User: What shape does this take?
Amino acid sequence: MEYCVDNLPNDLRAALPAECVGWPCLQRCGLCYDEPFLAVDGELVTGDDHEELLADAGVSPDR
Amino acid sequence: MNVLFVSVDSLSRRFLGCYDLDVEFDVETDNLDRFAERAAVFDTHYAGSLACMPARREWLTGMKDFLWRPWGPVEAYDVTLPQAARESDVLTQLVTDHYHYFQHGSNGYYEDFHGFEFVRGHECDAWRTAPRIPDDEALLRQATDPDRWTPDGLQYINRAQYARNVADFDQDDETEFFAPKVFDFASNWLRENADWDEWFCYVDSFDVHEPFHYPEPYASMYTDEDPCDPALTFWPHYGRIDEGVAELSERELDFVRAQFAGKVTMVDRWFGRVLDALDDTGAWDDTMVVVTADHGHYLGEHGWIGKPAAPLYDVLARTPLLVWHPDGAHNGDRVDELTTAVDLYATILEALDAPVPDNVHSRSILPLVRGECDHHRDWALYGYWGSSMNVTDGRYTYFHPCDESVDTALYSTAMMNAHGDFKPKEPKGDAEAGEFLPYTDCPVWRFEGPSYARHDDPMLFDTDTDPRQETNLAGEERSEEDAMRELLVDALHELSVSENQYDRLGLPKP
Assistant: This one.
């Protein structure tokens, strides 16, 4: 699972497991500006809420 | 003295014959080689602040950028090169296709020139709005991957913009593409403005930056693939080549490398027009010519593509620098002394006999160029804001990681984005104002943004014995690692960086 540091809330970022890879920019500025998004196995997924996207990807933040 | 300053975005020096060509292609760079035979070729020149606009703030204002702020505008307390030149009665001109000058977050860089020519349409330049769906489906697919993108999606940045921008270009006519237009304009400008007493011309070519799209003969010069094969992108996303959103097959990576090489050759051919103009106008005797790049571009080295979140290996950070000066002591020769991007500001002002502001971080290399000294600087710092800190002494490169749990302070008169460089700005409700900077009394905003660690542990390379930086010497209890860490601390202390930098880097405060 990949995410953009500028798109994911910082407190959520700190709670992600190590296998989640953060990038300072994923070069999807249009998406990044508009809505929450992640890349799961190289495919982009978007939604209203990062927690929901993470749950769909099977990722449990440690909070 | 006149000054011609040419920057070629992303020009990796290992693709240049004058820098010991280190790629699988025999890349044709006849004109850069021709200039290198005349000029002083600097072997140990390093970028400073990355990427595009931070580099331009160093060149055009003489200020180290990344230690205090990310990608952003010229500040009220900056004195730009064209402003300082103008005040010394020098005519100034900018020629560029670098559209970032005209995006969010980057104002102030072109306004002080007497004239500027902006060649429209590169990459995601917000230029053409028609056709709604570009007809060339192969081009659209190579540029955007329409399986993931809606070509007529109206989000802030959509890669279909590029396909729309070039939709009217004759795809068989290189003169309709960007570097040819930029260098053609520059060569004509040199011919038409020779009667001015003194001039400074800045030619800022966005090429060889991606997208790596351009016509024949260059498109097939270094590959047997069909350059229009929709299965092969000419515009890969940044990241790891072995997994994730930027993953590339061996075939895809080979194609991208070939297309990068082809673009280098196209830029070189048209750069030759500029050299011809200098020849024809007899300008060499009273003109300093500087050619450099803001950074390189990963093309599979160390497993990366683009300018991603990678450690700043020399592939990205060690940049070409070629300087012709009529009184140059090293013309036609090599210079091994350590130099860095920010130094070009004072160098150009000194060549123009214009005063250099006292508060800048730039040190003129003109004494070195003229043979008046044989040592220039002990260290060069380079990096991205909010990330690892990198230092070199000209032989060793030392990368010091940051603690991601400690945010990085950002100082500016603008409320710029910490990341997301050119996205629309958002208000920073937690900003405080004050005289926080060591080099100006001007109050600025101070707020924080997330830090980003490019690596977890220190990295050390001996670039004399290991120029490809394949053997990390850090962690072996070597005295060189301690010495480089001390050099880093000394450099940070000399620049009077904020306490936040020491906190986030876990380094002792002076």
In short: The first strand of chain B starts at residue 2 and ends at 8.
